[in-house]
Here is the input.
Amino acid sequence: MATRPSSWATKSAWLLAKDLKCEFRTRYALNAILMFALTTLTVVSFSMGVFSLNPRITSSLFWLVIFFSSMSGLAQVFVKEEESRTVNLLKLVANPSTVLLGKLLFNLVLLLLLEIVVVPLFIILMNLSILNLWLFLSVLVLGSLGLVCATTIIAAIISKAHVKGALFAVLSFPILLPLLITAIDGTRLSIEGETFSAGWSDLRLLISYLVVMFTASILLFDFVWSE
Here is the structure.
């Protein structure tokens, strides 16, 4: 019998609520990404504050801060299930697509909390002027969604490995490199005040990347989750 959409959505929401409750109890992943982000931002601002950076370097630093900060926390979404021995219970109560959606939403919430702190601080500390705010927000949203889709399926894969932390960053970087290059270019255009038509090629690439990674995650997760 096919799973009803309401049941599928309810179980995904239940899984998201469970992960959020556990995370706000321990604050392991949240503290990790926020502390890493704040440390990185402080170092970057003190190192580059005396220089006038061009938009390409500024946008590169912006996405590097988000990338490395997210690497310190997003992997925990499946690792903690393996460490707490709750994987088999999840397999019994939810199908793979439900688990994938719940974990995607949890990582998206973590990344959103990170960006709520990082983005305003980066703009203030770097004395950044964004001339096309809507293009900047569009790139940020699409880049974040693509980042979450890619890191969630990678987290599921590396949760089965013995060396989890180092392997996550090693596998993530080559997969996320096209996303980062495109997002950096789109952010540069928004800082320079270019129009949406000028940034449409970057937005289209980000949308394509998001669709490909989401589809690949759905196709691969059933196999990864059953291992």
